[in-house]
Amino acid sequence: MPTYTVHAPPPREGETTSAPERFRYVRDGFSFWAFLVPPLWLLVKQLWLALLICAAGYGLLETGLIFLRASGTVQLLVEILVGVLIGLEASSIERWTLARRGWKSLGFVVASDEEMAEHRFLAEWAKRPQPPAALPAAPAAPPQFATPARREPPAGNQVIGLFPEPGGSR
Q1: In degrees, to the nearest 5, what angle opens at C-alpha 19 toward C-alphas 116 and 34?
Q2: Alpha helices in 29-113 (DSSP H)
Q3: Measured distance CA(25)–CA(4) in Å, rounded
Q4: 162: in domain
Q5: Are 5 and 93 in contact (CB under 8 A)?
Q6: Residues 80-110: pLDDT tens digits?
Q7: Is residue 8 assigned to a domain?
Q8: Could you tell me which residues are beta bridge partners of residue 28?
Q9: How many CA atoms lie within 13 A of 85 on its CB side?
Q10: Does pTM top 0.85 for this prediction?
Q11: What is the tally of structural domains in the chain?
């Protein structure tokens, strides 16, 4: 059965937590559409940085294959392998982008489809105890620094770290 990771967006202005309706469920596993048409899949999912990296990677790869005078069969095989790699890592790319945008990972749920994953996760989410209202934080005390134990540099016969004694056998 597929596994879904659950992600919460950063709270909107005036909110303390994100509304559960805004949670996103990312299916873990191979993505057929990301394998078949990687740039289009990245565009539809609005993964702009990943799309830019993918386009640059494809450009460099094609330039390298042309420079090496690879046959059309080799070029096709390399493109299929890159598609398989993107298809396998599609969910990781999506999770990475969400984390970069400030979304928090809340956990994972095992379900047959996204609707069942949402139902299962929210049922468990409702059972969680709600945190108490946040109290205003007391001002932090200024840091207290200890004086160093030694103020002069080590003598010539003193060893720093895990080195053997000077003049001793190895």
Answers
A1: 50
A2: 32-36, 38-44, 48-67, 72-100
A3: 6
A4: no
A5: no
A6: 999 999 999 999 999 999 999 999 998 889 9
A7: no
A8: 3
A9: 9
A10: no
A11: 1
